[in-house]
Amino acid sequence: MVRNDTSLGSSLFSILFGSILLTLLLIILVFFRITGGVLLLGTFAVILYSLLTFRFKNFGYYAFFLFCFLYPSIQLYTGFTQFGVILDSLLLFTVFIGLVKYRQDVESLKDVYTSKLFWIWTIWLVSALFIQALNFDGVNWMSFIYGIRRVYLNPVGLVLLNIIFIRTKRDFKIALAAVIGGLLLLGLVAERQSIFGFNSFENALLSTEFGRTHLIAGTTRYWGGFTDAAGSGVGLALGIIAAIPFLVTKGSLMKQTSVVISMLLLFHASLISGTRAGYGSIAIGAILIALFYLRGNRQFLTISSLGISALILRFTNFGNGIGVIRRVRSAFNPQDESLLVRLVNREKLNSWLANHPFGGGIGGTYFDRRFQPDSFLSTFPPDGLYVQVKAELGFLGSYLFQAILLVIAVYMIIKAARMPKNSDSRLWMTICLALFAGARVSDYAQMVSFQFPVVNLLFLTMVGFEKWESWPSIEIFEKKKSAPLF
Description:
Blueprint: H1 8-31, H2 35-55, H3 59-78, H4 83-106, H5 110-113, H6 116-134, H7 141-165, H8 169-196, H9 200-206, E1 215-216, E2 219-220, H10 229-248, H11 253-271, H12 276-293, H13 296-315, H14 323-329, H15 337-353, H16 364-371, H17 385-418, H18 424-442, H19 454-470
Antiparallel strand pairs: 1-2
Helix pairs in contact: 1-2, 1-3, 3-4, 3-8, 4-7, 6-7, 6-17, 7-16, 7-19, 8-10, 8-11, 8-19, 10-11, 10-12, 10-18, 12-13, 12-18, 17-18, 18-19
């Protein structure tokens, strides 16, 4: 069995204290309106951040994580829309300092240039730029400058960030625990909204266009500390899957109880978000874990239960008086209004792409509204990550992106299946696979898996999966004829 690490709490406290210090500095920087003061504070913050990141191995990593979790609140409640640009810049800045320190500590960058993920996402970036170049006259280059970050450039930066800072099993577990903790705090905001109601800022927000997607058919969708209910539902659902290994490995009764309570809170907060993609993420994660860790009757009963639940939702009216169940049931309705709108929009996109095979250019789905309002993409609603990539890079980019995701998924399945069944490697790699698959399911209808703060979890576990392959396996479950968990 795995032993508890007694230093986990003190490590997280030290990281949190340093991160909060930098957070306060940046918030002051955002709201301080005197040009000279802004310059002085900015210079001071950059110097301090650089020194702390270089001096303390994990400071930059967790400071960046903290900013990611604060990003939704800063954007929604302050109206400071440029914080995303600051966050993307901070990522690249942290990676640069981290590489310098990593080179000094390890005396080699072998872990970087031998990483499969680094090359995969670099190939994706270069391929996207190549398609953009082929479409040179059909894109808006200001949209490109703003739009290159999230889906194309940031993946390389996030892979490097995790390669640099996640060096041991302990590093990985602390980072995953920190992400779950952050998701739990954001989920608790949704519980507060549900139980005690909205504050003045949130009520004002609901009176804008934001309310159109959060007050629907007599149902309120609670978004908690995320930018919207979609991000909340998917992020919290993935947090449930990520918490499973902390539950099934050995620990004190208090630890086990706290994990169970956290998972229940995440589940309820995900339900009240009304995000159907989140329900799909939980389902695919549960199926994968069942396939890897259950055997015989238990595996059959688990998968059958999921199937029967789907049939009840699809073909009966059981529980229809409960708003949450009605929302879940709508995911199985082929005549659902939002589904039909998506299908119509996607057919329009296919017709447009017939004459624009390379798409409308990187960033066009969001930033053409600002820089090229007469373009097709300026009025096209990107209702999923796959649709966004297809609209921006055309059929070629869409096929390439899906091929990359398929290669990663197949590789993860093969590698996880080959690990010893009772080992910690198999457990953690299976969880990483379940999270990857859950995010891919959500991408059909949402774009949140590549957005802050959910993207932290996605790339941490992808890099973690690759590192677990090389870390020595330890037997953590007793050998028996049945599967390790049951």
